[in-house]
Write a structure and sequence with these properties.
The chain is of the alpha/beta class. It has six helices and seven strands, in the order βαβαβαβαββααβ. Helix 2 runs antiparallel to helix 5. It is globular.
Length: about 220
């Protein structure tokens, strides 16, 4: 199905994250798009300094995020990490919208990844709602972060190869500060990709909510 829709023909891609490490939801697909020649820009809206585990430097998540994205293949100039306060996005909703509108005006992505509309985290809810408003011209896919979901409308699948999954696991291993989280473990990442692959007759896949599809 992805070949029919010309998935690898997307050229200007934005990965929109509430927090550093949200690329857990689409890192394999990012690897596939880079292989296909797409330009990917990444915007995380919070450095999450208040969520850093004890024993780590306050800026560790910024450093880990940059290392993760470099491992996938993003150049440093394509990465921006803003400084909105973690868990206070509802308060900053209008400022976030204006930030996203400015990104859209400057970059005009044709494909945007953002949290699924079923995500329950308060910051992710704001990013999804305001991202939908800001990027009205683009195809939008909502990535899954299972730890936040009550349900998930996995209505779109991106088939991936063993190489894509290996690159995803290697990249996400840069998050040493998050190793205690069950969803960061290799077996979980590979297992979820295998389940999504079975659902679309592929070896591996990542699943998304099809929030908006523009078929050109």
């Amino acid at each position: 199905m992805s070949e029919t829709l010309g998935f690898d023909k997307f050229r200007r891609v934005l990965v929109l994250a509430a927090h550093t490490d949200d690329e857990f939801g689409c890192a394999g697909t990012m690897a596939r798009l880079i292989d296909a020649g797409a330009e990917i820009r990444y915007l995380a809206l919070s450095k999450c300094e208040e969520s850093v585990p004890a024993g780590f430097a306050r800026d560790v998540l910024v450093k880990e995020c940059n290392a993760c994205l470099a491992s996938i293949g993003l150049p440093p100039g394509n990465v921006r990490i803003a400084d909105y306060r973690v868990r206070y996005f509802p308060r900053d909703r209008q400022a976030i919208l204006e930030d996203l509108v400015a990104v859209n005006r400057e970059y005009r992505p044709d494909l945007v990844f953002m949290p699924t509309s079923q995500d329950t985290h308060q910051d992710h809810i704001v990013v999804q709602a305001e991202g939908f408003r800001a990027f009205k011209h683009a195809t939008i896919l909502g990535y899954e972060l299972p730890q936040n979901l009550i349900a998930f409308h996995n209505s779109a699948f991106v088939p991936l190869t063993e190489s894509h999954i290996a690159r995803k696991i290697k990249a996400l291993s840069c998050y040493a500060s998050q190793e205690f989280r069950a969803y960061s473990r290799d077996e979980f990442i590979r297992g979820l990709a295998k389940v999504r692959g079975v659902q679309c007759s592929a070896d591996f896949a990542e699943a998304f909510e099809a929030i908006r599809l523009i078929l050109r």
